Amino acid sequence: MFLDVQMPGLTGLEVARRASGKCHVVFVTAYDKYAVAAFEQGAVSYVLKPFSPARLAETVARLKDRLRQTPANLDGIVRAFASKVDRPREYLRWVTASQGSNLSVITVDDICHFNAENRYTVVMTADAEALIRRPIKELAEEVDPKVFWQIHRSTLVNVGAIAGVTRDFRGHLSVSLRERKESLAASDCYVHLFKQM
Question: What distance in Å separates the CA atoms of residue 29 and residue 49, rounded to the nearest whole number?
């Protein structure tokens, strides 16, 4: 059984609790630090999202090797997961950024978008821009994903700052902002985010 930790209806943890010892379980998760614990405590395997075909094939091969064995008791991992997943997550609330020779504290509510630029990240507010020494990948894990959407590998945008989305004749999406003049390119792999708008 492949179980995502966060599913609608019953969570993957609730299903795993009911299936414990009855079938082999593979956890599908974006929580890599939890996945290692799952593997060590008897889950057949884990697949980190987004997963590759190679990782999925490796997991299926591992499952085939284990089919003759008794499925693991997952009570321990379900408790370990639940203690970490159920705890409310603290998201980034402000950043300290350089604006020329000054350091500024900018709340995330004031940020329109983040753009990766070499080893820095540019923080754009309605009327200013500043630099921080944090990679966009790290920021993407620390901001609330309901507030900031990654629309390109180098861009995180505040959903509240979006004015609209247009598609050009080649089908590429461009995001316009309420308080800034520039438009932001959205990669094809992030187009699904705008279907709910």
Answer: 6
pTM above 0.85, yes or no: no
Domain ranges of the chain: 2-85, 94-196
pLDDT (tens digit, 9 = 90+) per residue, 136-195?
988 998 999 999 999 999 999 999 999 999 988 888 899 999 999 999 999 988 888 887
Which fold would CATH assign to domain 94-196?
Answer: OB fold (Dihydrolipoamide Acetyltransferase, E2P) (2.40.50)
CATH architecture of the domain 2-85 equals 3-Layer(aba) Sandwich (3.40)
CA dist 122 and 112 (Å) reads 11
Q: Is the peptide bond before 50 cis (omega within 30 degrees of 0)?
A: yes
Would you say 59 and 47 are in contact if contact means Cβ atoms under 8 Å apart? yes
Q: What is the dihedral of CA 134, 137, 138, 143, to 10 degrees?
A: 110
Contact predicate 38/81, CB 8 Å? yes
| Residues 129, 84: Cα–Cα separation, whole Å | 36
Q: CA-to-CA distance for 98 and 178, rounded, in angstroms?
A: 24
